[in-house]
TrEMBL record:
UniProt entry tagged with the keyword Metal-binding: yes
The protein's name in its UniProt record: Adenosine deaminase
Keywords for this protein: Hydrolase, Metal-binding, Zinc
Annotated Adenosine deaminase domain residues: 22-345
Length: 353
C-alpha cells in the first residue's frame, strides 16, 4: 500500500521546503482523514467494530483492490462514528493533523447523511463540527470550511437529505461553503442530482462534485453542464478529451488533483502515468490534495512532493501550486491575500538563505 510513496519522495531539500510551506487543502474527506491514532481511539470506544485497533494492522486493512473495496472499508470506518462526541473528536484531531503540515485553510468534505442515517441527531452533528471548527481555528490557527457531499451510491434519498441539511437555515452550519457528490461514479449518473445542486446553489453554496475519477470525460462534462461545477474533484479522465481540457482552462475550472489516491483506488495504474502534466500543459488550474490521506498512506506534504517530481518543479513552482489552491478556494478575498502573502514571504526567505 505505501510502496508507491517510497520512490515518489522529492529531493531532501524540497521535502524540507514543502514541510514548512503554508498550504491550502481543497479536497480532503472528513472520515477519510482519520489517522491510525484517531481510528484506534474510535475503535477502542466501540470494540464491537471489525476495524483493527492496532495502527500497524490498519496498513493492511487500508490496502484496496479497487474503488468498490475502498468504499467498503471507508464505510466500516464511518461505522465507528456513532456519537456527537465522536464527530467532534474526529474533526478536531483532523484539524490538528492539518495544522502540523502548515495547512492554513482546508475545505473538508463531510457526508452528513452517513451520520444522520446512523442515528446521530442532526442538530448535535452540526454543533459538533462547528465546535471543533472554532476550537481548531483558535488553537491551531487553521481555518476550516465544509463541503457537504451526497454519497452518490446511496441514491436520491441521500441527495434529498444532504440538500435539506445544507439548505435548512435552522441547521446549516456557519462553516458550510460548498456542495459535493462523492462515492462511486459507475452506475451513478451525475444528471439525476441536478435538482439538489440547484437548491444548494440557490442557497449560496458552491458546486464541487467528484467527476472523472473512475469514469470517462463525459462524467466531467455532465458535472459542468448539469451540476454547474466550479471545481472538479479529481477530473482525472479529462486528459482524454482535448476540448474538455480547453474548456476547463478557458473557464478557470480547477481540478482537485489527488495523485496518490488515484493509485490507491487503481483509478490510474502508476504515478508516471498520471495526467497531471497534461493538465498543466493545457493551461488547466491544478490544485494538489490528499483526499483520504491515512487510508492512502499519504499526506498533503507527500502529494506536493509527488507533484514536484511529476511536474519537475522547484520551490517557486511549488509556491505557485500552493497559491493556486488559495486562489480557487472559497475563502474571502482578505483571507486569500493573507495566505498568498505568507507563501511569498516564506518562499523568498527560503531562497535567500
Ligand atoms: O453512508 C452510507 O450509508 C452510504 C451508503 C451507500 C453508499 C455510500 C457511499 O457511497 C459512501 C462513499 C463515501 O466515500 C467518500 N469518498 C472518500 N474519498 C472519495 C473519493 O476519492 N471519491 C469518491 N468518494 C470518496 C464520499 O465522500 C462518500 O461519503 C454511503
Ligand atoms: Zn474525494
Amino acid at each position: 500500500m505505501t510502496q508507491h510513496l517510497v520512490d515518489s519522495r522529492a529531493p531532501r531539500d524540497l521535502t524540507a521546503f514543502i514541510a514548512e510551506l503554508p498550504k491550502a487543502e481543497l479536497h480532503v474527506h472528513h472520515v477519510g482523514s482519520a489517522s491510525p491514532r484517531i481510528v484506534s481511539e474510535l475503535a477502542a470506544r466501540h470494540p464491537d467494530s471489525e476495524v483493527p485497533t492496532d495502527p500497524a494492522a490498519l496498513v493492511d486493512y487500508f490496502t484496496f483492490t479497487d474503488f468498490a473495496h475502498f468504499v467498503e472499508v471507508y464505510l466500516s470506518v464511518v461505522d465507528l462514528i456513532r456519537t456527537p462526541e465522536d464527530v467532534r473528536l474526529l474533526t478536531y484531531e483532523v484539524a490538528r493533523d492539518l495544522a502540523r503540515q502548515q495547512v492554513r485553510y482546508a475545505e473538508l468534505t463531510i457526508t452528513p447523511f452517513s451520520s444522520t442515517r446512523r442515528g446521530i441527531d442532526e442538530r448535535a452533528f452540526m454543533d459538533a463540527i462547528e465546535d471543533a471548527r472554532k476550537a481548531a481555528e483558535a488553537e491551531f490557527g487553521t481555518v476550516l470550511r465544509w463541503c457537504f457531499d451526497i454519497p452518490g451510491e446511496a441514491g436520491l434519498e441521500a441527495a434529498e437529505e444532504t440538500a435539506r441539511l445544507a439548505t435548512d437555515e435552522r441547521l446549516r452550519p456557519e462553516g458550510l461553503v460548498s456542495f459535493g457528490l462523492g462515492g462511486p461514479e459507475v452506475g451513478v449518473p451525475r444528471p439525476q442530482f441536478k435538482p439538489y445542486f440547484d437548491r444548494a446553489i440557490a442557497a449560496g453554496l458552491h458546486s464541487v462534485p467528484h467527476a472523472g475519477e473512475t469514469t470517462g470525460p463525459e462524467t466531467v462534462w455532465d458535472a459542468l453542464t448539469h451540476l454547474r461545477a466550479e471545481r472538479i474533484g479529481h477530473g482525472t479522465s479529462s486528459a482524454q478529451d482535448p476540448k474538455l481540457l480547453a474548456h476547463l482552462a478557458e473557464h478557470r475550472i480547477a481540478l482537485e488533483v489527488c495523485p496518490t489516491s488515484n493509485i490507491a483506488t487503481r483509478a490510474v495504474r502508476t504515478l508516471d502515468e498520471h495526467p497531471i502534466k497534461e493538465f498543466v500543459e493545457a493551461g488547466v488550474v491544478v490544485t494538489i490534495n490528499s483526499d483520504d490521506p491515512p487510508m492512502f498512506g499519504t499526506d498533503l506534504d507527500n502529494e506536493y512532493a509527488v507533484a514536484a517530481r511529476l511536474l519537475g518543479l522547484d520551490e517557486r513552482g511549488l509556491a505557485e501550486l500552493a497559491k493556486n489552491a488559495v486562489e480557487v478556494s472559497f475563502l474571502d478575498a482578505a483571507g486569500k491575500a493573507r495566505i498568498k502573502d505568507e507563501i511569498d514571504t516564506y518562499t523568498a526567505g527560503w531562497l535567500d538563505r
